[in-house]
Structure to design on (374 residues):
């Protein structure tokens, strides 16, 4: 009995060791190998594959570890024809040297004929919003929403609006030369999306913004959908409104006209036809927390994806919806876009692109193929 217990303990420790080592090292070590001194492709691939094979043979490979294994094999496939014959990685500076931007001693080569003559200027936003008494002052963070009102007679007078997931809304009235914050007086200054019914400074239309951070909702929750009728100068809440403590989530917007808006929420796709006074659930998810979020539109067609691998579309400006691909219950977001002719495309987390046909119940056709792991 004692020997059996000892054997079981050894097996448990072995499984724990491999699980831990794969989970902790896999995301950092091999991805940084090309820029680390003395890294060797052959050693790394042999070690990683051996670890995964042990887990597979014991039947202990979890879904996340299986996904990580596929990611590693993509990395290995990418590098297999790019490494040196001894398994070492080429200098990351070789590309710059080849196009003449670095000389042979890796110094900047200002006389390179291939050097771009274009100049770049940081036009902002470049200053933090005022703290307003918050213990942790709001910060700029990344920008993920942009709207432009074009001045048809004078481009320098165009009005630009940007939104930051942790930095509110910023506005420029001189085509980006200067910026001022317009949302830092609200309790939740996270912004996921900004869309409007007009792009002309002479016809302001209405701007709508979803608050919070759809891609990292644990950072800033949503306080609802807000609107502006003065090109982003001031903002007021619609009746789709949440308390910051409510841990609610909103996704992206489609603005059909001044009063008709479609937005993704945690459990529903919602629609208003009266400027946000009332909101109707036009599609209900199959799972709690399905998190409808990504959207693209063309004419009366809208495609929306959720965070559980679902794909949904509407051909009547969001009034009714058809589910093209049902949510699976597994975490997985699709990117979605539409080309200038109105053809929609989605891309899943594995990189597969699909072209959508919104006729009838809809269909999705693969565009290209993802190279299989070697």
């Amino acid at each position: 009995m004692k020997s059996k217990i000892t054997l079981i303990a050894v097996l448990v420790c072995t499984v724990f060791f491999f699980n831990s080592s794969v989970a902790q090292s896999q995301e950092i070590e091999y991805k940084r190998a090309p820029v680390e001194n003395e890294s060797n492709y052959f050693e790394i691939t042999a070690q990683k594959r051996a670890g995964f094979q042990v887990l597979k043979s014991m039947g202990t490979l979890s879904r996340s570890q299986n996904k990580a294994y596929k990611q590693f094999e993509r990395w290995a496939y990418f590098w297999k024809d790019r490494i040196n014959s001894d398994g070492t990685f080429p200098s990351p500076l070789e590309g710059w040297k080849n196009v003449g931007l670095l000389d042979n001693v890796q110094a900047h080569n200002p006389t390179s004929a291939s050097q771009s003559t274009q100049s770049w200027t940081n036009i902002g936003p470049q200053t933090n919003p005022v703290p307003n008494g918050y213990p942790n002052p709001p910060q700029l963070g990344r920008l993920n929403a942009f709207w432009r009102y074009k001045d048809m007679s004078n481009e320098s007078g165009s009005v630009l609006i940007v939104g930051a997931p942790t930095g509110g809304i910023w506005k420029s009235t001189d085509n980006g030369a200067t910026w001022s914050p317009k949302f830092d007086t609200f309790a939740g200054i996270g912004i996921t999306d900004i869309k409007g019914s007009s792009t002309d400074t002479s016809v302001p239309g209405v701007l709508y913004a979803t608050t919070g951070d759809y891609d990292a909702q644990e950072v800033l929750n949503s306080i609802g959908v807000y609107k502006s009728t003065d090109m982003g100068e001031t903002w007021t809440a619609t009746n789709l409104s949440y308390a910051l403590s409510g841990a609610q989530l909103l996704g992206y917007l489609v603005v059909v006209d001044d009063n008709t808006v479609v937005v993704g929420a945690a459990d529903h796709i919602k629609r208003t036809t009266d400027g946000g006074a009332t909101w109707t659930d036009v599609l209900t998810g199959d799972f709690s927390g399905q998190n409808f979020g990504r959207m693209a539109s063309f004419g009366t067609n809208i495609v929306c994806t959720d965070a559980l691998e679902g794909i949904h579309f509407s051909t009547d400006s969001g009034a009714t919806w058809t589910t093209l691909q049902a949510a699976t219950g597994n975490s997985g977001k699709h990117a979605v876009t539409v080309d200038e002719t109105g053809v929609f495309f989605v891309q899943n987390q594995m990189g597969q692109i699909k072209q959508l046909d919104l006729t009838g119940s809809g269909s999705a056709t693969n565009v290209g193929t993802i190279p299989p792991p070697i």
Observations:
- The helical segments are 2-25, 29-32, 41-58, 63-79, 94-98.
- The CA atoms of residues 42 and 87 lie 6 Å apart.
- Confidence is low (pLDDT under 50) at residues 1-28.
